[in-house]
Amino acid sequence: MAIIDTPNYLPFPEGDPDNYKPGSSMWPVMDPVSPDGNYVKDLVVSFERLASGEGVPLHIHTTEELLIVDEGEVEAHLGDERRVVGPGAVIFVPSGTPHGFRNLSGGVVRLHAVVGRHIVGTQMLDRLPRPGTEGQPPQPARIDDFRKFINAL
Question: Is the distance from CB of 133 to CB of 21 less than 8 angstroms?
Fold first, then answer.
């Protein structure tokens, strides 16, 4: 159990050829492991700042996700629905549902995502390609372990 009150925003990893957003940053947060076992084991919160024109390409996960827009406007894709949403919008994403979004604000968009598992399968359905990878198909599905990712930061 912990109270974490000092944000530590970092650039998104540049190695992902499908999700290139050099002007954006993220702060992934999990309850630190406690030797006595008294900590929240799976809940993950990711705070994100998305630069103008950047976003998250269409993808699916093996777990449910909750997205909350804190500032700015995004074009949200959820299943077959596509619409512009702003501050206070809450997007409930069932497991296996295609979703993504793009910053339309002309400034920074702030949002946060919550998943109830720290190990999440992800399949990209579309791309924001890293330069030099344009025209390539999305990478194969992958398993992300957020606890390992956060501990490596």
Answer: no
Global pTM reads: 0.92
E strand or H helix at 69: strand 65-71
Look-up: residue for tokens 């920074």? 108
Say which DSSP state 67 is in. E
What's the token pair of residue 139? Answer: 């990478």
Q: List CB contacts of 34: < 8 A, sequence separation 6 or more.
A: 1
Amino acid sitting at position 80: D
Buried b (16+ CB within 10 A) or exposed e, 64-90: ebebbbeebbbebbbeeeeeebeeebe
Q: pLDDT digit string (tens) for 120-134?
A: 999 999 999 999 999
> Helix or strand or coil: residue 103?
strand
Q: Which residue has the tokens 């919008």?
A: 89
Q: Which residue reads 């598992």 in tokens? A: 117
